[in-house]
Amino acid sequence: MHFASDNSGPVPQQILDALARANQGYAMGYGADTEMAGVTARIREIFEAPEAAVYLVATGTAANVLALSTLSQPWQTVFCTLPAHILQDECNGPEFYTGGAKLTPVTDAGKMTPDDLRTAIEGEESRGVHGPQRGPVSLSQVTEQGTVYSLAELEALGTVARDYGLPVHMDGARFANALVSLDCTPAEMTWKAGVDAVSFGGTKNGCIGVEAVILFDPALAQQFEYRRKRGAHLFSKHRYLSAQMLAYLSDDLWLDNARAANTKAALLAEGLCAAGARLSHPVQANMIFAALPRGTHRRLFEAGAAYHLWDGGLEGSDEELVTARFVCDWSLPDSQVQALLSLL
Amino acid sequence: MHFASDNSGPVPQQILDALARANQGYAMGYGADTEMAGVTARIREIFEAPEAAVYLVATGTAANVLALSTLSQPWQTVFCTLPAHILQDECNGPEFYTGGAKLTPVTDAGKMTPDDLRTAIEGEESRGVHGPQRGPVSLSQVTEQGTVYSLAELEALGTVARDYGLPVHMDGARFANALVSLDCTPAEMTWKAGVDAVSFGGTKNGCIGVEAVILFDPALAQQFEYRRKRGAHLFSKHRYLSAQMLAYLSDDLWLDNARAANTKAALLAEGLCAAGARLSHPVQANMIFAALPRGTHRRLFEAGAAYHLWDGGLEGSDEELVTARFVCDWSLPDSQVQALLSLL
Amino acid sequence: MHFASDNSGPVPQQILDALARANQGYAMGYGADTEMAGVTARIREIFEAPEAAVYLVATGTAANVLALSTLSQPWQTVFCTLPAHILQDECNGPEFYTGGAKLTPVTDAGKMTPDDLRTAIEGEESRGVHGPQRGPVSLSQVTEQGTVYSLAELEALGTVARDYGLPVHMDGARFANALVSLDCTPAEMTWKAGVDAVSFGGTKNGCIGVEAVILFDPALAQQFEYRRKRGAHLFSKHRYLSAQMLAYLSDDLWLDNARAANTKAALLAEGLCAAGARLSHPVQANMIFAALPRGTHRRLFEAGAAYHLWDGGLEGSDEELVTARFVCDWSLPDSQVQALLSLL
Amino acid sequence: MHFASDNSGPVPQQILDALARANQGYAMGYGADTEMAGVTARIREIFEAPEAAVYLVATGTAANVLALSTLSQPWQTVFCTLPAHILQDECNGPEFYTGGAKLTPVTDAGKMTPDDLRTAIEGEESRGVHGPQRGPVSLSQVTEQGTVYSLAELEALGTVARDYGLPVHMDGARFANALVSLDCTPAEMTWKAGVDAVSFGGTKNGCIGVEAVILFDPALAQQFEYRRKRGAHLFSKHRYLSAQMLAYLSDDLWLDNARAANTKAALLAEGLCAAGARLSHPVQANMIFAALPRGTHRRLFEAGAAYHLWDGGLEGSDEELVTARFVCDWSLPDSQVQALLSLL
Q1: Which of B69, B215, C85, D195 could form an S-S bond across to B97 if both were Cys, CB 3.0 to 4.6 Å?
Q2: Pairwise CB contact (< 8 Å): B129 & C73
Q3: Looking at beta carbons, which residues of chain C come within 8 Å of B223?
Q4: What is the structure's pLDDT at D1?
């Protein structure tokens, strides 16, 4: 019963097979491998973006901080939400890579609204050279609360950003989960809605460790390469990154994995609600935040369930509600969901 | 005939097998995997350093820049050689990670002598707060010219560093190649000679992408963890790094690979000399720098040999000597060495 | 009628005279001037801190960012208030100098409470290496809203910081204004209450441009010197900084100036209230935030009054209340206060 | 007998008078003072550059590091000489402000030649994304060895830079001394020769502490303002910087001071040579590097002469030659030169 994270499960056999296939003979390093040419072509095709620059790195934080630093200046602030991964979970990596830019939370919620964004942007207006300057907008899709921006919401946010001439970054650590949730095209969810750069996640959805950074403006490509190299994120044996990503994007593996994860989460959410749990946020992808009595959590943990409590802990009365995060990954069998539910 | 780099060959089956073995069930992320416990234990055993802190990252540059930043302050300078990888080939990564420290080349040669080092350290003495302050010494073992510091040389350099209270870093991207060349213990080549931190390479010697940073002073561990995370080098699915390193250190794979590479290089060097080439530096590991007439290079390239010219290019007279770098990796078959030599 | 800022008035003759006195013959540069020895001795005496390290810089932002970087690590966050100068008005200078540390606002108010602080510190606890780590607490005394922490408040905040082992910085851009407001000793307002480092302002209270950084732990002195130099804040002709500070601290000039400014502010606040203005915050030093009908602001501006509107602008109905900031500097004559009040 | 530095003498009365004049009534802060408008107009006139952006800071290092960071990217290297102030005497300030750029010395000499520069630029060509990228060229005029680039030399260096599309920075800490030495116009010595940004020194030539940064491309102005602010180099009471610079540029004070200093240096050099000293470099401005027997230095120091030994110290045989640096500032009376010479 593993619901702790979508980075704790195994990878599908296709990924291992792809590594084995790539492991033949000699290959040029540093991204000049033939697999990478395939990755670039495939991503341009999927995103309907024939000019996009595409790069691979091994961690989601690397994708985010490199993308953000490419879109910003050190004297600017990045507009994001308070729960954003870049603000909460990257140990000041964005500040490090941008050379000291700030992050301004425009809302405490998981999703920002156009009004939130506009108000925050306006708030950085009046102090001239003294305050931080307006910088990129960063949107997490899926959000850190398991919700998904609709296309209309994305477009509205993109419009606000464009009104102020600010670029938009999408933290797509769970890009595929959002995509299948919306049932739209990658282009619709990104550049057609005003997104300039995407952290396109592979790791949480079945890869060993690979994320693409997609820059729709190829003029940013050159500086990205320098930023990646000096950040120590350029792989010499790059073919093993490329091979993962190519397999991930082949035969709909990425979409199938995401659908599997989302489906399990829907099943689990339904069961939790049926058992009386209160959902903190709508369940729109593969993460569930739900409040259960502390006594229930105790029982689940004792039975071997693995997941994180989000507020409160195990100390206290049995009756008090404690919120937990359940994450379903691609590999989770139905039987584990049922096993958890049967304990309720 | 692939002599371009030791990062262009395949990895041994043991590494792929280890990934497959690690790909079972659920595992805690971020280094809390059970394989990592094995890695730490094994490295402590190999290095006879029961207290050492051990961390994994995926690139050699990451290992170097994280180790150096842990040993230095932004107002210091790192003493290294002019050809050092950290100076030439990391696109200002050390300056980035250290927050702006300098690199001072103490010699144009591949190896620094104790006199070189002492003179350079003394040279940073007289300007008080105005000049950069003295910082760590960084030694590449194998050096970027394919030579190997003897234990006596390392100890003499360690003594100079200790005289000034400066820590010593070893860039061991080709650590195993040096070790089998010296036929000594890892402890002798590191902490017994005064080395405080090691970038212990796996990638160039048969891994997909994994390097260990070994800190003999465990008091440095905590800050290293923060530096690795904010540098975006902490892997969520860390078990796949651990598995590689564990396989690498099992059944003498690391030593066998290094011996194979060094042996091929010795064979190739002998053949090159027999054919009239002039070696630029003693061949002590798996790299050869040799001068051949330009016409010979043209002939070899046309026949499909892959390696880098180091000075001069293909334009010019046939007779002029042009230096090339030949690198032998673990996987290179004897037949390829013979094929190259037969062309001479 | 100049109430825009306490950096827009002239300096007292004593400061100019001190520059003229210092302008005799030759003097060692970079802080080795004899005046600086006097400054250090005087500040140690005033603060009852015979071991304190004392440095001069020319801007308040320099004092803040150098002090904060000395107390923090790049992976930490600085706990401050939302209106804090370091957060709002230093254009990411703290992020730059600290190498990428964050600033966490613990409250939207001008003053933080011990509860605010404790809650914020606890909030940075649960994410291990992923979140920013806990760093220094920075308190503005006078606050950016013109209020002054009482000694009891300072001590309570210092106790919270000490509970977590966190150092405390005081942004004392208006240190003297706070001191005379509290009628306490500098020691009571700083190290006795748990403050580790002070930005001790001179510029806003009558100097041309000089601030002292006082480090009560002399072990921090060495690194501060390197930080100041590489930040380009070490003056070659340092005697002219020293001379200002020495004159400022002589014959109670600093205290007299602060009392004059505070007295004018009290007078103005009383008059504003009598005229129906609503104070946003208690007036405890030399700054007033007060709401007046927009029509009144229009009238005052037309009559030549200089001050800043804090929220809202001149567009809109006459009746709506708009908040303004009035700052009184040492040099402000009573007649200007009366002139403003007579317009109401 | 003060020859230690041109930052250890007093300032002329005109500078103090200007401060007193500026000390009237209220003035807008942060560069919006009326004096600054005069400074900008005057510098544009002097440099025949009606569009140039002009900013003031208080230290020469601030001028250099802010100018260099405006012209470079963190992944580039700055081409300079080995004795350059930015390399030797700014405690890694350039690395800090540029976000980690490197400095590449193109020669050990005080002056670089076009060949030196071209060779160094070519040397940063072959390693693609791995090496540092080519960045700005920084020229010190006067050089750190007391020599002055001729207009022809500057133009030739500017041509090399332009061939590679690299911007040129001039460290003009002793700009006026060079200008009167060449007897040319400021335009000829800067933008007409290909210089893009100038650190225009005031401090070493009679000001208390003020330097202008002149950017001939006004498109760089906006980012410079942000860099200056976040570097904590924007003065609130800016009028006192402006007043110094305006007085400095009035009534030929800057030129008169420089001529006085250069004249004394010529006199001293002549006398030193007559007494048997060997000049290390041609004396073209206000600095002299000369070798004298150690015994002579001992005698001079005992008699109260103040200057720096450049290599070697006071320990050793009387006969051995030891090189010293003598700097003449604007205020040095002839009598002091004579006093020194009379001791020889």
Answers
A1: B69
A2: no
A3: 73, 75
A4: 83
Mean pLDDT of chain B: 96
CATH number at residue C324: 3.90.1150.10
Same domain assignment for residues A294 and A339: yes
Statement to judge: residues C239 and C258 lie in one domain: no
Verify whether the Cβ–Cβ distance C230 to B30 is below 8 Å.
no
Q: Kindly state whether B232 is in contact with chain D, defined as any CB-CB distance less than 8 angstroms.
A: no
Closest by Cβ to C92, choosing from A89, A92, A100:
A100
Instruction: Identify whether D208 is part of a domain.
Output: yes
pLDDT band at D314 (very low <50, low <70, confident <90, very high): confident
Let me know whether D178 and D284 are in one domain.
no
pTM for the model stands at: 0.97
Total tally of structural domains belonging to chain C:
2
Selecting from B88, B96, B130 the residue whose C-beta is nearest the C-beta of D100 gives B96
CATH number at residue B35: 3.40.640.10
0.90 surpassed by complex ipTM: yes
Do D277 and D326 lie in a common domain? yes
Q: What is the pLDDT of residues D207-244, one digit of tens each?
A: 999 999 999 999 999 999 999 999 999 999 999 999 99
Given an 8 Å threshold on Cβ–Cβ distance, is D65 in contact with C2?
no
Does the distance separating the beta carbons of A75 and D227 come in below 8 Å?
yes
Please answer yes or no on whether B223 and C30 come within 8 Å at the CB atom: no
Among A228, A248, A268, residue at a domain's last position: A248
Tokens 């921006």 sit on residue: A149
Question: Residue D316 is part of which domain span?
Answer: 254-343
Are C188 and C71 found together in one domain?
yes
Task: Say if residue C17 is in the same domain as residue C81.
Answer: yes
- Please indicate, yes or no, whether residues C241 and C301 belong to a single structural domain of this protein: no
Domain boundary (C190, C225, C248) is at C248
Chain C residues within 8 A of B230 when measuring between CB atoms? 74-75, 100
Residues of D in contact with A73 (CB under 8 A): 223, 226
Cβ within 8 Å, pair C93-D229: yes
Residue A39 lies in a domain: yes
| D170 and D268, same domain (yes or no) | no
The beta-carbon neighbor of C24 closest among D10, D65, D93 is: D10
The alpha carbon of residue D60 is apart from the nearest alpha carbon of chain B, in Å, by 13
